[in-house]
Structures are given as C-alpha cells and as structure tokens.
Amino acid sequence: MYCGGYSPTEGNLAKRRDLTQTPMQAKIHLYPKFAWAWPVNRRILYNRAGVDLNGTPYNPAKAVIAWQDGKWVGDVPDGPAKPMAQGGPYPFIMQTEGHGQLYGPGREDGPMPEHYEPAETPLTKNPFSSQMSNPCMKTVHASEYDVLCKNGDPKYPIVLTTYCMTEHWCSGSETRNGPALLEAEPQQYVELSHELAKEKGIKNGDFVLVESLRGKCEAVAMVTVRIKPFTVMGKTVHLVGMPFAFGWTKPKCGDAVNRLTTSVGDPNTTIPEYKACLVNLKKIAKATEL
Amino acid sequence: MPKAILIDTTKCTACRGCQVGCKEWKNYPPVATKQRGTHQNPPDLGPYNVKLVRFSEHMESDGTVKWYFFPDACRHCLDAPCKSGASLEDSIIQDKETGAVIYTEKTAKENFEAIKSSCPYDIPRLDPKTKRIVKCDMCIDRVRANLLPMCVKSCAMGAMTFGERSDILKLAATRLVAVQKNNPKAQLCDMENVSIIYLVADAPGKYHKYAVADASDSPGYMTRKEMLAGVFAPLRKATKQLQG
Amino acid sequence: MQTTAVETPAALRNIETALSRASTDIPALTPLLTAFGPLLAARARLREAAPGWTGPALVIDAERFGQGAFVLAQTEVGGGFEDMSAHLTGAARTLLPIMEQSFPAIAAELKLLGAAIASGALTPKALASAGFGDAAAVPGVSEQTMAFAASELVRPFVERQAQDLAAQVKGLPWPQTCCPVCGGAPNMSVLRRVQEDGEFLQAHGGRRFLRCSSCSTEWTHKRVSCPGCGCEEPDELLVLRDPARVHERADACKRCKAFVLCLDSGELAEVPDPDVAALTMLPLEIQAKQQGFAPLAEHPWSSL
C-alpha cells in the first residue's frame, strides 16, 4: 500500500507539504508535491480519458493532463502511455477492455440504477418497476421490533422521514447537555402539513403520539407550510418529519425517533434506511416523555 | 465615529449562533423552554435573551413557501425614543464613540412600562431580579476593546457586518441593489434612524411585527414613528417642567 | 495557494486610529509611537500621491512565476523598481523635518542631509541608490543615519509601485515565502478575515498573509508552517504572546530558530495598520529575540 511512498533521497513522501504547482495544475487545484498518492503519485486515475486521440484536453480550462511537445504535462499519466493516435492504449488501463464501466463485479445489487420503494411503502404498486423494494436489502430478524408493515398498510399510512438539526450534534447526546442549545431546541417535535393536521384534528403545539409497527414516540406538533401532502398515483400521501437529536438520557425532552424506524440496511454497506418508514399519529391530551 | 451593523437577512440561515453566542458572552442563565410548535425559542426577547432569531413562514399565492429569519435585537436608534422617554438623565445613555444606546443600573428606577412603550421595536425587557431594564448594548465592552460584537463574530454565514456607519451605509446600498434584482420588495429597515440596519427581501411585516417602526398599531396619542423621529424629546422636557 | 496581493490597507485613517488606540492601551510604548507614528502617517500621505509603475507594460510568464520568479525578476529594466529620484527632493522636504522632530538624537545629522539634498551636493540619484543600500557620503552624516533616512525616503514610492505590480499577478499561484513582487523577506504577517460574497459558510480563522519588509506587498501563505524553513511539525512551532494582548503573536520555529510577527485580526472590529501593529509588537519582538529566535526581516525600529 505504501509502495513508492518512501524515497532514499527525499524520505517519507507522504510528509511533503510543498504547494508548488504549475498554472495549469492550479486551475484544478492539483498539488503534485503535497504528500503522496500511491503508487506513482498520479492524482487523477485514468487521466488520459480527459484528452482526445492526440492528447489535447477536451476542456482546456480544466485540463488534467495534456500532450505537449512529445511529453505529458499536468498530472502523472497512466501507463505512462502515449496518446492513442500514436499507438497508446485506451485510457482505462486497469479494465480488461480499456473502457470506462458503469458497473463492475463484486456488488450485491445492480448492475443498472433502479428506483425501489423503501422497505415500508404507502404504495401497493411501484409505478416504475415490477419489483417493489430492493430484493438485496439487508434485514435483521433479532427481535420482535424487527418487523415491517405490509405495502400500503392502512394502519400506518403516513411516511416518516428523520433528520438532524443545527442546534444539536447528531443524536444530541452531547449538545443536549448545553443549556443554551437546549433552550433553543428543547424538545422532540414532529413537523406536519396543515392538511394532515386538519385531518387529524391536531393544532400547532399539541402533543402527538407517533406510532409505527415497532414502537411509539411522543412529540410536539409543528404544523407548517413547509411540508405539503404529496399526490402519488392519484392518492394523497402525507409526510411527517422528526429530528433524531433527542433521547431518554435527558428527561422531559422526548425520546429517540429510532424507536419508530426500520432495521433495514442497504445491500453493500448496510447503511440504515432511516429516511423513510411508515407511521400513524394521533393527538394526545397528556405526554409522559415531554 | 458612530458604528453600525448591517444584518443581511437574506444570508441568515437561522443557525442561532448569534442568539447563543450573545447569551454565552453575557453569561446569562439558561431559560427553561418548551417546544410550542415553532423553532423560535425562547418565544420572545427576555431579560436573559437580548438577541432572538425570529422565524416566520408564508405560503405565497403561487404555492411557493417563504421562510424568513430575523435576528432581532435593539436597533440603537440615532435619536433614541427610550432615552428621551427616560425620567433620569443617566439611566439611558448614548455612547459618544459608537452611538450605542446603553441602559445603566439606574434603569431600575425608571418606569418600565413607559420605557417599553416608547420603543418602536418592542425591545426593552425587565429583569425581575435586579429590576433593571435590559437590552442589547452592542457589546460595548468588546467594541471598546476593538473586538467585534459577539453576534457579528459568531455569524457563520457572514450575514452581519460591523463597522463605521459611513462604510456600512455604503455596503447596505450595494447589497440592496444586489438583492433587489430577484426581490423587488427588498428594503433596508429604517436605515436613516437606526444603527442596526436590517436588509429584508420582502415586506418587513412578513418578518416581524416590529421589524420597522410602524405607526399602524400604536396605542395612545403619538405614533411610534413620531416617537422615533425625536418628537418625544420636547414632550419629556415639558413633562419635567410640569413635574417641577 | 493563490497570491491574493491585497492593496496596502487604505492608509491614513487606519494609521491614525491604530496609533491613538495603541497609545491608550500601552502607555509604555507612547515614546516609540510618537517617534514613528508621524513618520508612518507622512509616508502614507506620500504614497497616496506617488506615481505608480509607469514603465513598460509587464509581460509576466505565469509558468516562471509559479516556479518562484517574482515580478521584478521578470522585468527587462534590470530587476529593480523604477527610478523615483525625481520625487526624492520633495519627499525629503516633507519627511526629514518630521524625522528631525521624532528622532532628536540624529536631528543634526538629518539637517545636514536635508541641506545636502537641497543644495544638490547629494544628487537624487545617489540618494535613491542609498535608499537601496548603496553607500553615499555626506559630511557629518553617519552611515547608519544615511541608510535609515534614505530607505524611509524611497519607501513610499516603492510601496506605490508595488501595488501596481502586485495587481499584475493577482490570482496566480505563489507558494513562496518571499515577496511575489520584489523577492523581499516578510517581517510581518496578518490573519485576515476574508469576507466572501457567497452563499456558503464563512471562514472565521482568517487567511494568513505575509507582508514584505521592503515593499509592504501582502500575499497569502498556508497558516501552519514556518516561513523560514517550511516546518509544519506541531512540536516545533511555537506561538509567543502576551496573555493580555492575545491577538498579537510571534510565530516562532524551534527547528530553524526564525520567527515572524503575526497579527491575528479575525475577531478585531477594526484591523489596525500592519506597520502600527508591528510597532506595538516590539516588546514581543524583543522577547522572541531573547529566547534565541531571529526575525526573517527587521523593522526600522527593531534594533532600537
């Protein structure tokens, strides 16, 4: 992995901090003498793909390399090979055919991009595909909480998305201890449209119980024009949003929204699908978590 | 030389760095708040919150959503009605160097309601413990030490600029022209009368009820706008003479 | 790294406010401030009135510039600033009386020098060369006084020409620690808040500008590195400062034993003129020298 990174004369090349560059390199913020790029200090892989058959850059204003007076200037060329017009190979030298690829071997899913519905969806039919959700997604079956609604489940017709906020860092476990930050964002809330609020008889500031197949979470209703109902395949679909910055460690600020979300991961890295799941909500007179 | 701050609300993202930074610098205690269905928290300015980012959202007739942020605090009026409305000479003073309007500990002896109602921007608040009337002091301690006011220093978006009034007026005019290209209703709020100049992209009332000194809702005999124009000063003298 | 050669900050008001503030803040420095302050102000006035670069249009080879060939190294007129001798007699009439007032110890010598310039005994050409370090003899004027006075006299014209020359290379990469205009060494640095008119987060720490000891050009340079040897090891780099004046520092390097003064202006309401700032940092400069560090370049007052 460190092959070529140590030279007998210059020592550890990764420690270099020389910002010398040519004007051509400056245009693309390339610093060839800063640190080291394995294995031959080439900064942009397959850089010969940026030039035509004669080695002239397709975009001279942002050239990575260029063939000038019988040699390459700019980045370290792949190969090193001459321009294709002079017998050089195709630029993607690490691929068998020498061409760029939209996909390669070793992935769980693919090869072409596709729209799938989330693991939980308010729809009963995917309008773009005969396959509803990703057949390769990673699921967990460890407890009674690892369950998913059926497609278009009438008991949980509302889509929940979760997000972070400016005032609290990630899950808020540190920032909820900062009094001035907690003063600015004190409690769990759920943002919903005026239309949904009317349907459910919820007023701004009311306590709301948000429920999924997996759990429940109390929140304060934030009725806002910033969320609008969607019309999907002729049907109204409501979206609500909740931050994931709250949790039980700080009493009376609300509990974690991840009690509602699904335990589903993407096929390759198992990054969880916290951006979409199905819930229902109702007004409650009294809250215990808030 | 008088100072001024331009607050370009079109650059504000309501991160509330100014609100928190102000509080931390002043060492004000935290206030217990509740989520009430808005990000604006605490709900209003208070004795321990002299800077507050106000949120307002609007559904336009064409279906677009406008979300406006207004980092509210004292405007440091050039001819401050609150100063004219004070009964003591030195309870409310204006710093000659900067133009900052400063409430001293003597405000505890003032009639809070009178001072509050004289302000066209609804700024003064009463500290129940000390009985002092409080508001932003333009970080006069910092400015005297050649440091930026805390709100300006903490503004991550560069929405606030502090400087000589003459320079700030120039900058404000330049920014207004730029913002007006896409927002014909953009304006600089009460620029001639105040040191803290807000650039808003839409009608000021859509940001905050008291974004500008408005005459429409004022109680009593004198409009807030008239108070701001300095009409209050002779009245105060007259009252004093009457009271002996 | 781009050369953002900034214009010397619009001078006079800045110099005067910085001087009066410094004098209030550090009464002990008042003698130094009253000695050099009027000189700095007078120099700024002369600079504002001085002609810029009037010579042939410069053809900058961006490639060579990127490799470290500064602007004056690329001119055809012999690698120097343009002859300003025609203006020096006038400058002497303005500056020498101020210097006489400020520096009583050498007032007599300065009087003799003024007379020699007025009578033509010292030609403007010889005076100009003395300003760049050549020897020039005037009876009764020491070598040291001659060098000091002459370099102060040429300085406003050098600075004004440098402004024009710096504009020629604005935006070109310049990673060097010497001046992109004249190749001089930095004697000062400033961390400046750079307000960008963008829609993104603004940097708060400020960009580091090195400032040329000969022509006052400023150029950006990476923040955490020694301009003397390029060292970036945290253990080797040292920041000296007086806890009471946190925005003033001497950035020193244990490896090459060099230091450069630094004004950290990110939080300052008004960024003082860098020359005045450097003047107020004399105690820090002395402290750095006492700890065995050497400046990359001196200020006129450094060796007082």
Give a verbal description of the structure.
The complex is a heterotrimer of chains A (290), B (244) and C (304). Chain A is mainly beta and 290 residues long. Chain A has helices at residues 23-27, 179-184, 194-200, and strands at 6-7, 11-12, 65-68, 71-74, 138-139, 158-163, 189-192, 207-211, 216-223, 230-232, 235-237, 239-243, 264-265, 277-284. In chain A, a hairpin with a 3-residue loop joins strand 1 and strand 2 (11-12). Chain B has 244 residues and is of the alpha+beta class. In chain B, the strands form four sheets. Chain B has a four-stranded mixed sheet with strand order 8-1-10-9. In chain B, strands 2-3 form a two-stranded antiparallel sheet. In chain B, strands 4-5 form a two-stranded antiparallel sheet. Chain B is globular, with a radius of gyration of 18 Å. Chain B starts with a strand and ends with a helix. Mean pLDDT of chain B is 90; it is low at 215-223 and 234-244. Chain C has two domains: 15-168, no CATH class; 186-295, FdhE-like fold. Chain C is built from nine helices and seven strands. In chain C, strands 1, 2, 3, 4, 5, 6 and 7 form a seven-stranded mixed sheet that branches. In chain C, helix 2 (30-49) crosses helix 7 (143-168). Chains in contact: A-B, A-C, B-C. The B-C interface holds B 3, 11, 142-143, 146-149, 153, 155-158, 161-163 and C 21, 195-196, 199, 201-202, 204, 267-270, 272.
Outline the secondary-structure elements:
The complex is a heterotrimer of chains A (290), B (244) and C (304).
Chain A: E1 6-7, E2 11-12, H1 23-27, E3 65-68, E4 71-74, E5 138-139, E6 158-163, H2 179-184, E7 189-192, H3 194-200, E8 207-211, E9 216-223, E10 230-232, E11 235-237, E12 239-243, E13 264-265, E14 277-284
Parallel strand pairs in A: 6-12, 7-9
Antiparallel strand pairs in A: 1-2, 3-4, 5-13, 6-14, 8-9, 8-14, 10-11
Chain B: E1 3-8, H1 17-26, E2 52-59, E3 65-72, H2 81-85, E4 92-94, E5 101-103, H3 112-118, E6 125-126, E7 133-134, H4 140-144, H5 150-154, E8 160-164, H6 165-180, E9 187-188, E10 196-200, H7 224-243
Parallel strand pairs in B: 1-10
Antiparallel strand pairs in B: 1-8, 2-3, 4-5, 6-7, 9-10
Chain C: H1 11-25, H2 30-49, H3 62-66, H4 85-102, H5 107-119, H6 124-131, H7 143-168, E1 186-192, E2 207-212, E3 218-220, E4 237-240, E5 248-253, E6 258-264, H8 274-280, H9 282-290, E7 294-295
Parallel strand pairs in C: 1-6, 6-7
Antiparallel strand pairs in C: 1-2, 2-3, 4-5, 5-6
